[in-house]
Specification:
Length: 282
């Protein structure tokens, strides 16, 4: 199979040519793949994903089952118009690691089409950057995090033109996290984009958002989730103020956190929130 044969396969063109499952033989030959969902009404891409086997068809089944979410809303709108989303197998025959990288690159490339992906792709800190961002990311000194902190990546929400209030709103809320469960709860929150701390906040308290309908969300955000989370996954947000201590700001803001390990695909990391050191006996 040539390189050209491994890219950009169109699976479903319209209602009359629907394929709703791959055979075992096809699944084996595809291996790991990256796909796009297109709206046939205007040709825009509204979701990008990575999968194996029949993963690419699960979205349509979940939409038919009434699952909440932006991508499922879009599929239902398309079907209400008598059409089916176009499924593009963009690249296949890959390892999972390579597929993750291709997925992330496509999410970057199609970011202007208002994707319904809830999170950015794998390795987002290696994603699209201007030359100034590259210089800042790789020339910045490591942050010196000496306070219990939650680090929050806002990659797809980040833009250098954000006002202080917009940066705060895009950093502080709609996260699946339970900071109070850590032995040392975070006292500070760091807004991270492209591997750099963009702002540091002192946390006053946390809020919970059980109702995740779009009309309840911050309207200035680039992408929002239409999902109503179950209680165990209720989304959280902190209320706080920017750090004013000059020494702490110098140690954090504008510095690199590329040395901090985030979980695979997770926008959240904690530093200094483990067990406190044992107190010496008197």
């Amino acid at each position: 199979m040539s390189v050209d044969d491994r890219s950009h396969i169109e699976v479903a063109r319209g209602l009359s040519e629907v394929v709703d499952a791959f055979s075992d033989e096809i699944s084996q030959r595809l291996d790991a793949y990256v796909y796009r969902l297109e709206d046939p009404r205007d040709g825009t891409t509204f979701y990008i994903g990575k999968g194996r086997g029949n993963r690419v068809f699960q979205h349509q089944r979940m939409a038919a089952g009434g699952d909440p979410g932006l991508r499922y809303d879009r599929i239902r709108e398309i079907r209400a118009a008598g059409l089916e989303p176009r499924i593009r197998i963009h690249r296949h025959g890959m390892t999972d690691e390579t597929a993750h990288e291709v997925e992330a690159a496509l999410i970057d490339a199609y970011a202007t089409e208002q994707l319904t992906n809830l999170v950015s792709g794998h390795g987002i800190d290696r994603g699209v950057m201007g030359v100034l961002d590259v210089s800042a990311a790789y020339g910045a000194q490591p942050a010196e995090i000496h306070v219990p902190a939650i680090l929050i990546k806002i990659e797809r929400q980040w833009d250098p033109s954000l006002t202080a209030e917009q940066l705060y709103e895009r950093t502080r809320r709609y996260w699946v996290c339970r900071p109070e469960r850590h032995p040392v709860p975070p006292t500070h929150a760091l807004s991270v984009a492209r591997g750099i701390v963009r702002e540091a906040y002192e946390i006053a308290y946390w809020e919970e958002y059980p109702d995740m309908r779009r009309e309840t969300m911050d309207p200035t955000r680039r992408t929002v989730s239409g999902r109503k989370s179950a209680a165990i996954n209720a989304r959280r947000g902190f209320v706080g103020t920017p750090v004013t201590d000059p020494d702490l700001r110098r140690a954090l803001v504008g510095r690199s956190v590329r040395h901090v390990a985030f979980g695979s695909g997770s926008p959240i990391a904690y530093v200094g929130c483990g067990r406190p050191p044992a107190q010496p006996r008197v």
